[in-house]
């Protein structure tokens, strides 16, 4: 059976590096096995979900090349959730509870004071139909809880140790004790549904076979497996990848806004660099640039994903971006270079690509080659002598070595004393592409003017 996977972001903000990692792992798994990738917008949080964020998610995924085979929005599926909720209420696995958050907080504090686990005591299940009717008449609104299957023989109210196990695609054998959990709220007082419920119904209806997500959902999996069982459905396979930490070893959670896809785009990073880093960080594979998504998909292996936190470093991502640019042919970037106003063709690209961190840097070097720069004269005697022995055109890559040999013979300078003053005069910069490649592009007239300290 070909896998059917999904990426299910909430349109309450921009995609960040943690989201990208989850999206990439799902998309690459589907790609590798010829499967189906669903974009599902989990927008049950109507107060915070917006169409603008939904479109931004689509734009970011398209920029990364993570195209989807189908799209669904939970807001469009309310009737389906209503139907399943009605069935769950009729069977008794969903029950109304009327406690306010303040009442629940007081109960938790009492339980902790008595050294008891602070889980919901199922007081609502003790209410008679008359008591429920009385509360409704008083204007009290209920939320609805899912009764976990964690009591002896399904009777009584006291939770018993109830182990739910699965073989995780990434973490191996996993177990959650439903007896240690509160019956989760699935429907809020205002009638809106929580993710735990809607996600299971969607996964059933869309035939999802594999769910790959962050390890912060491990406990949710125990509850959701019980929901799949209550719905009479076969659950998908689950895989939970580790979360990311920063280069300093601290959690990224407070900095994720600064690590959005949009921020990477604003930095001028390549989508393949971002994708490679997201997919390979926290694995046994080296984080390296790959030219295609298919090549990246072939490397995907859940056994290679560590259960230890993945270490994300923006500087490492920038370095990876440079490495990717260094391996790209001119044809891969020609249109984008023209859009930047860079018209030097393949010769120019081959000369500068090894010194680029982002593609936009090519424009800086094009300005050095063709623009009006301020030369830096470090050794006037050196540059005067260099001008005297400057060969006539036409020039080739051999011209640089021939010219510097002549300068060395004239001045006796060698090593840094020879090359550094020439680089400063010709480019105005301390370092950069090899001058043997840049020299023919700059041309004799500009070289001569710059050696004389003139802007050219």
From TrEMBL:
The keyword Ubl conjugation does not apply. It is found in: Cytoplasm. Keywords: Aminoacyl-tRNA synthetase, ATP-binding, Cytoplasm, Ligase, Nucleotide-binding, Protein biosynthesis. A motif ('KMSKS' region) lies at residues 251-255. One of its GO terms (cellular component) is cytoplasm. Residues 393-452 form the Aminoacyl-tRNA synthetase class I anticodon-binding domain. It is an enzyme of class 6 (ligase). One of its GO terms (molecular function) is ATP binding. A motif ('HIGH' region) lies at residues 9-19. Residues 4-318 form the Glutamyl/glutaminyl-tRNA synthetase class Ib catalytic domain. ATP binds at residue 254. Belongs to the class-I aminoacyl-tRNA synthetase family. Glutamate--tRNA ligase type 1 subfamily. This is Glutamate--tRNA ligase.
């Amino acid at each position: 059976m070909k896998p059917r996977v999904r990426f299910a972001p909430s349109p309450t903000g921009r995609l960040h590096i943690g989201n990208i990692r989850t999206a990439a792992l799902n998309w690459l798994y589907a790609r590798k096995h010829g499967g189906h990738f669903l974009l599902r917008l989990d927008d049950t949080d109507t107060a915070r979900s917006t169409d603008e964020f939904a479109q931004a998610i689509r734009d970011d995924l398209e920029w990364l090349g993570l195209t989807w085979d189908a799209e669904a929005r939970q807001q469009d599926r309310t009737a389906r959730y209503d139907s399943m909720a009605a069935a769950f209420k009729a069977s008794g696995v969903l029950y109304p509870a009327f406690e306010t958050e303040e009442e629940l907080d007081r109960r938790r504090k009492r339980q902790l004071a008595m050294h008891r686990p602070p889980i919901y005591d199922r007081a609502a299940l003790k209410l008679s139909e008359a008591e429920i009717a009385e509360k409704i008449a008083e204007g009290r609104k209920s939320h609805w809880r899912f009764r976990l299957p964690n009591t002896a023989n399904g009777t009584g109210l006291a939770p018993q140790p109830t182990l739910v196990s699965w073989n995780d695609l990434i973490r191996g054998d996993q177990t959650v004790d439903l007896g240690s959990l509160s019956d989760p709220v699935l429907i809020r007082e205002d009638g809106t549904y929580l993710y735990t419920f809607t996600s299971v119904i969607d996964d059933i209806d869309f035939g999802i076979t594999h769910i790959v997500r962050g390890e912060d959902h491990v406990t949710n999996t125990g509850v959701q497996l019980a929901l799949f069982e209550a719905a009479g459905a076969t659950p998908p396979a689950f895989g939970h990848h580790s979360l990311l930490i920063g280069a300093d070893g601290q959690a990224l959670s407070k900095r994720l806004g600064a690590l959005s896809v949009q921020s990477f785009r604003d930095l001028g990073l390549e989508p393949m660099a971002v994708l490679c880093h997201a997919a390979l960080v926290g694995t046994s594979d080296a984080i390296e640039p790959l030219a295609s998504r298919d090549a990246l998909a072939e490397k995907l292996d859940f056994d290679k994903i560590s259960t230890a936190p993945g270490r994300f470093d923006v500087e490492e991502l920038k370095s990876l971006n440079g490495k990717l640019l260094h391996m790209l042919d001119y044809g891969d970037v020609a249109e984008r270079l023209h859009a930047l106003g860079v018209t030097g063709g393949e010769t120019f690209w081959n000369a500068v690509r090894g010194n680029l961190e982002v593609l936009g840097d090519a424009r800086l070097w094009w300005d050095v080659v063709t623009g009006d720069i301020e030369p830096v004269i470090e050794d006037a005697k050196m540059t005067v002598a260099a001008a005297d022995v400057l060969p006539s055109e036409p020039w080739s890559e051999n011209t640089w070595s021939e010219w510097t040999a002549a300068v060395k013979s004239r001045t006796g300078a060698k090593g840094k004393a020879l090359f550094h003053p020439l680089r400063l005069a010709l480019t105005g910069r301390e370092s950069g592409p090899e001058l043997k490649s840049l020299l023919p592009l700059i041309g004799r007239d500009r070289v001569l003017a710059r050696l004389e300290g003139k802007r050219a």
